[in-house]
Write a structure and sequence with these properties.
The chain is α+β, with helices and mostly antiparallel strands and 716 residues long. The protein has 24 helices and 16 strands.
């Protein structure tokens, strides 16, 4: 097998896999303790001793293993508080020391059979008491857990050495049972260590080592060629000597040879195997020389990266990610306003990083350790003013020290402040747009829409089509699109906003005011345009209504005196151009005052409205019917012909028609009314030099003459 293959196999020992193995060991050890306690509770010898007739595990020992399983679980559970493991460790330490103290000083603290009475124990000085080696191992477990983060020198952790001792003591006891060597699992006349107790200590020590695989002894075991070799040689070192000794003992017992030959055979076999293993080690190391050049290149790249970080004046710190401790350098202290002494006091990551950002950083660390994904985050760190500043942080494993992450950061507080200001301004603009009743959009010179805001209230009078990737010609009605075209063309050459108006039919006539402003204008081009579409319909309708009210009678909707005189002026000018005669008729309703006095003004108003309707139906559509006020009306007749007699004859025909129509009986709802009208007229022509006032005076005089006449009907 090549060195490269060994390295590839070694890389499989990643943190997640080892963490799962450790948790499995924790559950298994705790489960053994629980089953043994059940055996004591039900007096089941099989549960207590595993092998019928073998040494039983004591009840206190079972309790100790339940505590050990819990403590080992807490060590690998990222959610559990560290103090949980410490509390359980103190309990384990107290159990081991108290039991060993009883044996050492020959005292009885009455804790050996506190739970159950071991009446079946024989050949022991202390029934119910665990083995002294078991008590020592429990004490070592408690101390190892309490010292799990303590370090001696650069890479030595006392907890790992204690875990090795725990596993070795358990392994020696297992060998004693395998070789039937009682001194290996029993001290003098004291209680023997049960075989499943020995196995539990063996795997428990291994689990404590695997709980922190990236530091100290375990960092060398789980990384690199040396670690890969150790993993492969460990089973041989554990089982080969025991296997050889057991086989030779079997040969001696069966009489194949004597004890001296058996020992010589064992030494020869072990020496031969060790020679083969030594050759294999030399071969692997020789193969690894081909990887040295690549490693040197990686180191040089790492050094260059560190040099680049220091040249760029990035603040850096070291993070012991398993313990949560950090070490700030002078640049990082200066960047956040700390003195070096204050920076040295800032030892815990939880005090340095904002609590809300800490979970994201820990998740990024887990991703880095499991998949190699680099850490690159924006988070907040504490500064000298006890406030939090935004930084951009990057992290990578330190070369040669997997338990340490080299972190660098740069202050981005100004950048974040600018982003927050931009976000606040954007929100303010959005709120402002939401409050506007207008449609607002931006587009380029081709008409392609970049952004569009449509108010929800009041809703536009036409449906807004999906606009993403469309031009305004695709989204808006044709009339608005044409108005945008006109305003955009004018905006190319003008600085001020350009306005265009349009109207179209969308469930009624709609009026829109279109305002276009050029954005980012330069001598060469216009980048964007801003357009505001203002619904002007209500304003236009209001203006039209006001104009109508100014020139029309509100009761009959006929032109009032002002509009009548204006149209008469226009009719006289038209007559002057066409050389045709026209006429003005003045109508006064007879007995109207009597109707108001007897039937009320409501009846009079209805009568006036019906008279107006009757008069409009009695003349041509080109003629003008107006109400001059009260019960007085007027009619303008145009284009009566170029011959004066013919024109006057036509005017008389209209007078007669109106007179007959107004003499009819009118239904006023609550009553009926029949009367007559006095009608006078006056002719006008373009050849005449008469003014509007003179023509009206002539017609008034004619009407008054008819009114004074004793005849009913009309008189000219």
């Amino acid at each position: 097998m090549s060195a490269a293959t060994v390295l590839a196999d070694s890389s499989a020992l990643n943190s997640q896999h080892l963490s799962r193995v450790t948790r499995g060991i924790a559950l298994a050890v705790a489960a053994v303790g629980v089953f043994v306690l059940l055996g004591w509770l039900t007096d089941n010898g099989l549960l207590k001793s595993v092998v019928p007739g073998a040494v039983t595990m004591k009840a206190n020992t079972a309790v100790g293993f339940v505590f050990c399983g819990l403590a080992l679980w807490f060590l690998t559970d990222p959610v559990a508080e560290p103090r949980f493991a410490n509390v359980v460790a103190w309990c384990i330490l107290a159990l081991g020391l108290a039991t060993f103290g009883q044996t050492l000083f020959s005292v009885n603290l009455a804790i050996d059979e506190l739970l159950f009475n071991d009446a079946a124990a024989v050949n022991t000085s202390s029934p119910g008491r665990m083995s002294p080696v078991t008590a020592i191992n429990f004490a070592l477990v408690g101390v190892a857990i309490l010292l799990r983060h303590k370090r001696l020198g650069q890479d030595w952790y006392p907890a790992q050495l204690l875990a090795v001792v725990i596993s070795v003591l358990g392994y020696v006891a297992v060998l004693g049972y395998a070789l039937d060597a009682q001194p290996l699992y029993r001290v003098k006349v004291f209680t023997s260590m049960a075989v499943h107790t020995a196995v539990c200590f063996l795997v428990l020590g291994a689990g404590m080592l695997l709980a922190y695989p990236r530091r100290g002894l375990m960092a060398n075991v789980t990384h690199g060629i040396g670690g890969a070799l150790f993993v492969r040689l460990l089973p041989v070192a554990l089982f080969l000597p025991a296997l050889v000794v057991w086989l030779t003992e079997v040969g001696v017992q069966r009489g194949h040879y004597d004890g001296g030959f058996g020992r010589a055979l064992a030494v020869t076999a072990v020496s031969l195997v060790l020679f083969v293993l030594s050759y294999r080690v030399v071969h692997v190391i020789a193969g690894s020389e081909s990887l040295r050049k690549g490693k040197d290149t990686a180191e040089q790249a790492h050094q260059k990266l560190q040099l680049a970080m220091s040249t760029a004046r990035l603040a850096t710190f070291q993070w012991q990610h398993e313990t949560g401790l950090i070490t700030l350098d002078s640049a990082s202290c200066a960047s956040i306003g700390f003195s070096q002494a204050e920076g040295d006091a800032m030892r815990e990551l939880a005090l340095f990083v904002h609590p809300a950002d800490l979970p994201a950083l820990l998740a990024a660390k887990a991703s880095l350790l499991s998949s190699g994904t680099p850490i690159h985050l924006e988070l907040r760190i504490r500064n000298a003013a006890d406030l939090f500043a935004y930084v951009e942080l990057s992290a990578m494993p330190a070369l040669g020290d997997p338990a340490t992450l080299l972190c660098s950061f740069s202050d981005i507080s100004e950048k974040k402040a600018a982003q927050e200001q931009t976000a606040a301004l954007t929100e303010k603009i959005r709120s402002l747009l939401d409050s506007l009743p207008d449609i607002v959009l931006t587009f380029d010179s081709t008409g392609a829409i970049d952004q569009l805001h449509s108010p929800s209230s009041p809703a536009p009078r036409f449906p807004i089509q999906p606009w993403q990737g469309m031009t305004y010609a695709d989204v808006f009605p044709k009339e608005i699109s044409e108005a945008l075209d006109i305003a955009m063309v004018n905006a190319f050459s003008e600085i001020t906003p350009q306005v265009a108006r349009c109207q179209f039919d969308a469930n009624g006539t709609c009026h829109y005011k279109v305002t276009v402003t050029a954005l980012g204008k330069s001598r060469l081009r216009v980048a964007k345009f801003l357009a505001v579409l203002n619904d002007d319909t209500d304003v236009q309708n209001a203006q039209m209504s006001l104009a109508h009210m100014a020139f029309h009678d509100p009761l009959t909707e006929l032109p009032n005196r002002r509009l009548f005189e204006d149209r008469l002026c226009q009719a006289m000018k038209n007559s002057q151009r066409s050389k045709e005669y026209g006429a003005i008729l003045v109508i006064d309703l007879d007995k109207f005052k009597q109707l108001n006095d007897t039937k009320g003004h409501e009846a009079g108003d209805v009568y006036l409205q019906q008279v107006a309707k009757t008069m409009r139906g009695s003349v041509r559509s080109v003629d003008t019917v107006a109400r001059r006020g009260g019960d007085e009306f007027a009619v303008i007749l145009e284009d009566l012909g170029g011959d004066e007699q013919v024109a006057e004859s036509r005017a008389k025909e209209v007078v007669a028609k109106l007179s007959g129509a107004l003499r009819a009986e009118f239904d006023l709802g609550s009553t009926r009314h029949q009367s007559s009208a006095s009608i006078g007229y006056a002719m006008f022509s373009g050849a005449m030099a008469d003014s509007v006032e003179s023509v009206i005076e002539l017609a008034d005089a004619s009407m008054y003459a008819v009114k004074k006449s004793a005849h009913s009907g009309t008189r000219t």
